[in-house]
TrEMBL record:
NCBIfam families in the cross-refs: division/cell wall cluster transcriptional repressor MraZ
UniProt cross-references to HAMAP family, sorted A to Z: MraZ
GO-annotated cellular components: cytoplasm; nucleoid
Primary gene name: mraZ
Pfam family, one: MraZ
InterPro entries according to UniProt: MraZ, MraZ_C, MraZ_dom, MraZ_N, MraZ_sf, SpoVT-AbrB_dom, SpoVT-AbrB_sf
GO terms of molecular function: DNA-binding transcription factor activity; transcription cis-regulatory region binding
Compartments (UniProt record): Cytoplasm, Nucleoid
Organism annotation: Anaerofilum hominis
Protein name: Transcriptional regulator MraZ
GO terms classed as biological process: negative regulation of DNA-templated transcription initiation
Top-level division of the source organism's lineage: Bacteria
Length: 139
């Protein structure tokens, strides 16, 4: 399971040292793409393919915007010998990533956040969104 939070730095070439714990879970090849809430998502190859199949089955017209967002910007991530992955400029721009990146495990995937956006997300969840979500799930 992908869990935990790590603060990482982007180098001048846009490479991110992907946490070892996440690399071990994700494997030698995974995908990174734009995600909701102005962050990026990293998905194991099998999960990425499952999402693609589900979107394809559920109809082109209904999901074309989501398909465009997920697949047009997607890149195959293969960590180098130092464990770094390259985040191309369009992905960094989507998520507002400059020098610092918060890398969080969310169960079956990993999200990459700008620190200020991540803090704002945490603050909004603390303000009642989390309680409402837990109540809806009967937790």
């Amino acid at each position: 399971m992908l869990i935990g939070t790590y603060s990482q730095k982007l180098d001048e070439k846009g490479r991110l040292n992907f946490p070892v714990r996440f690399r071990d879970e994700m494997g030698d090849q995974f995908y990174v793409t734009c995600w909701l809430d102005e962050c990026l998502i990293a998905l194991p190859a099998a999960r990425f393919e499952q999402i693609f199949a589900r979107l394809t089955e559920s109809g082109m017209v209904k999901n074309r915007g989501l398909r465009r967002m997920l697949y047009a910007g997607a890149v195959e991530a293969v960590p180098d010998k130092q464990g770094r992955i390259l985040l191309p400029p369009p992905l960094r721009e989507h998520a507002g990533l400059d020098k610092e990146v918060v890398v969080i495990g969310v169960g079956d995937c990993v999200e990459l956040w700008d620190p200020a956006r991540w803090k704002a997300m945490q603050d909004s969840m603390r303000s009642g969104d989390m309680a409402a979500a837990m109540e809806e799930l009967d937790l």
